[in-house]
Amino acid sequence: MVRFILTRVASAIPTLLIVSITIFVLMRMIPGDPATLMLGDLAQPGQVEALRRQMGLDQPIVVQYLIWLGNVVTGDFGQSIATHQAVLPLILDRFSVSAIIVLLAVLLASLIAVPAGMFAAWRQDRAGDIAVIAASTLFLSIPSFWLGLMLLMVFGLWLGWLPIVGYVPFSKDFTSALIYIIMPVVTLVLVESGSIARMARASTIEVARLDYITHARAKGLSEPAVMWRHAFKNAFAPTWTLIGLILGSLLANIAVIETVFTIPGLGRLMVDGIYARDYPVVQGCMLFVAFIYVVVNLVVDLVYPLLDPRVTA
Amino acid sequence: MIARALGLPRFRFNGALGATIVTLLLLIAVFGPWFAPYDPLKLGLQFRLQGPSTAHLLGADEFGRDVLSRLIYGARTSVWIAFSTTLFAVVLGVVVGILAGFIRGWTDRLLMMVNDALLAFPGLLLALGFMAVFGASRNGIIVALGLAYMPIVVRVVRGTVMSLREREFVEASRVMGNSEIVTMARHILPNCVAPVTVLATTMFGWIILSESALSFLGLGVPPPAPSWGNMLSTARPYISQAPHLIILPGLCISITLLGVNMLGDAIRDWLDPKMQG
User: Fold this and answer.
1) Quick check: A249 and B240 CB within 8 A?
2) Cα separations (Å) of B89 from A66, B49, B143, B153, B260?
3) Pick from B213, B240, B265: CB nearest A145
4) CB neighbours of residue B82 within 10 Å
5) Strand, helix or coil at B15?
């Protein structure tokens, strides 16, 4: 077990290094010299030259990467061109906003969709199954940003039950913070439930065909006992991986939801950075989200043997 | 339930409905300009934000442009981008995947290292990064989304190649004196068609969704050219005055995705009967 954990953690390090190289190369592909971009069009050639030297841009590209990597590892993600703020604290601040919404949404979606998918598998080809498949295919086909806009229109504008735009931090006022994130969270829950339910259904069907389930039934166990005690663990393992992938990718995809509901989250920070050609911010956001994505997948893999002990073998 | 009433297996009913929606979409995309009632860019300020009427069947937008015509041209944009992007990702992915799986050794290791690096990013994040480099434009989206989705194709193709390359018929082709390229083209490539077709259909849907998301964020198709995503984005400020500007483009995206997903499921069930359930 300890060996499994160590190997898995160690294998994440090269991935992270390659990810950092990709982002570094990508940002260098952006037309224009970083120092000129940083100082703006009105800068004197002397100033640009000085900044280039200070940023290490006169060094060979490999040295530039190593300098940058060294800074990143010590938590120095550079400064925003637009606001001159340090990038990492800015990212962490916005991340706390997005993380709450994403975590809550994925948790609720899993609690709804996993039982729904298992129920559908249990009632395969009957009315209950068809209803779950139909609903999940439908929600899989609705873009989250449109669903968000529709909820906003119905519950915000027409019925007036919920506030339309804005965000209140949890540290300020817990109740209103909760009210403000209801619609974004519900939107993501609906959209993500579709794929989770389909996955849970497919893997439960696969497990239900196995001999040990027939054996459990033959012993005279009740259907709920068969499903919960015997089918659940094995059927949940593949779904667990999907939930991890969704959790990680939502940090990037949430940009559209933050746009719909005007929430100052991490996705919005990156998109605004792209508009403003604020490359240190874009680079920092990419690095941060990719890092979280790799870490989340790592944690998912580490928990996997608890669900399916065959994996460590 | 409808499927059972018609005496069809469910996947065939889904396939038929999906195929109908996708065919309609393609027809609209190709022949749209012939039956679009107006020029999608023609301004008509007197009709500004008007709801559906006889002059404008689906109403007019914030510049008085005809919504129906813009939706039709938007379909053209979405289909064109999704088609080019899928083609780009598939062609590049198949070439890289076959090379990596067949040649192996250092070529494989190097190609897979780059590929895994790209796979280590969530799809939209990578696309956003590429958009920062290329800037918002049609070709920018095609290259950005194509590069973001290509690694998945590489993985699938390489896996197929790896499972084939030691099989007898491939060995036979080599023994017969065929060159590696001929062996790859004549014996390996045809076997990749089924898994790649399934993947390409699914990807077509993802790309339509990603393109509309990028356009919604203002990083996709630049206005005034209509795309369903940028129509939603520009209509946001008028959500209370002109709800039809929000409802209609989203409905178009959803129906399209529903069709593509249903067709994709049916093709997968057909080519891979194991997955049927």
Assistant:
1) no
2) 32, 39, 9, 7, 18
3) B213
4) 27
5) helix
The reply to whether B277 touches chain A by the CB within 8 Å rule is yes
Of B122, B216, B262, the CB nearest to A256: B216
pLDDT at B273: 55
The answer to whether B209 touches A249, Cβ cutoff 8 Å, is no
Put simply, whether A13 touches B (Cβ < 8 Å) is no
Residues 6+ positions from B261 with CB-CB distance below 8 Å = A137, A140, A141, B18, B202, B205
pTM of the model: 0.87
Q: What is the pLDDT of residues A246-274, one digit of tens each?
A: 888 888 889 999 999 989 999 999 999 88
Whether residue B259 is predicted with pLDDT greater than 50 in this model: the reply is yes
Q: Is A161 helix (H, G, I), strand (E, B) or coil?
A: coil
ipTM over 0.90? The verdict is no
Rounded Cα distance, B54 and B37, in Å = 11
Residue B247 burial (CB count, 10 A)? 18
Write A128-131 long-range contacts (CB < 8 A, 24+).
Answer: A129/A201, A130/B1, A130/B10
The band of A206, judged by pLDDT with boundaries at 50, 70 and 90, is: confident
Tens of pLDDT, residues B58-108: 888 888 788 888 999 999 999 999 999 999 999 999 999 988 887 778 888
The DSSP secondary-structure symbol of B222 reads P
Cα gap B267→B15, rounded to integer Å:
7
Residue B189 has pLDDT above 90, yes or no: no
Residues of A (258-287) whose Cβ lies below 8 Å from B: 259-260, 270-271, 273-275, 279, 282, 286
In a 13 Å sphere around the CA of A168, the CA atoms on its Cβ side amount to 14
Tokens of B91: 């062609």
Domain A94-307: CATH architecture, name and number where available:
Orthogonal Bundle (1.10)
* Tokens 């992007």 sit on residue: B85
In single-letter form, the type of residue at position B277 comes to G
Flag if B117 and A141 touch (Cβ within 8 Å): no
Domains and CATH numbers, chain B: 2-276 (1.10.3720.10)
Query: Could you tell me the pLDDT band of residue B276, with boundaries at 50, 70 and 90?
Result: very low
Q: State whether residue B212 sits within 8 Å of chain A by CB.
A: yes
Q: What pLDDT sits at residue A98?
A: 92
d(CA A15, CA A62) in angstroms, rounded, equals 18
* Structural domain spans, chain A: 2-73, 94-307
